[in-house]
Write the C-alpha cells for this entry.
Amino acid sequence: MADELVHLDVVRGAATITLDSPANRNALSAQLRRELLAALDAAIADPAARVIVLTHTGPVFCAGMDLKETRGASADEQGIMDFPAILERIWTSPTPVLARLAGPARAGGVGMVAACDVAVAADSTTYAFSEVRIGVVPAVISVTVLPRLVTRAAHELFLTGETFDAARAVRIGLLTTAVPADELDAEVDRYVGMLRLGAPGALAATKQLLLDAPTGSMAERFAAMQRLSAGFFAGEEGQEGMRAFAEKRPPTWAAPTP
C-alpha cells in the first residue's frame, strides 16, 4: 500500500492539511490529488474545523502537475481533468482556507494559493506561471488566479513565465503577506486566531458575499443585502454575539477550544 501523501489533523479548531510528498516536490500526482480532495471534503464537513490551513513538508509548497504522469497521456487521462474540483473546493469552502508557504509554488501550486482566502508565505519564496515554457496554457488555474492578480501583472507573468518573488506576489494580490521565515508560523497562528473569532455561519455568508458577482440594480442589491443583514442580526449567532458584547465575554464560538 502506498504511503499517505496528504495528512489531515484537526487541533483547537484548525484543520491542517499537509502535502507530504517532498521527494516529488509535492507535485500534483494522481494519488496526491485524490487524497487532497478527500481531506478538503473531510475538513469542510467537520464542525470542529473553524479554519483550514493548507501547508506542506519539504522545501517546496507545490511544483504543479506531476509531469512524469502527464507526459504521453491523453487529454482524458491527464490530471487537469480532476484538478478543477480541488480548486473549486478551496474557493467555495464555507470554512476559511489559509495557505502557509515555506517554499516556492509553481503553476498548479500557484492556482491553489490563489484559491485560498488568505495566503501567508516566507519572504524567501518564489512563484512562476511556467506553463508556456513547456508548451501548455495556464488555463485551469486562471479561474482562481485572474480574480486575484492586477491585470497588467497577469499579462506579463502568464506570457513570460518569469519567476517572481514574494514581495511582488503581495503587491500584485497573489499573497496576503510575506514575512521572514522564522516568523511564518507566528503569522499563520495570528491569522488562524483572528478567523476563529468569527461566527461560523457569518463567516460562510460573508465569504459567499465576497464571491458572488453583483447582479441587478443598486436598489435591488441594497434590498438583498438588507435582508441578509437583518436575518443575521435576528439570528442565533447575531443574538449571541450581541449578548456577549453586552456581557463583556467571548461569544460561544470564540471560547477557547481544547
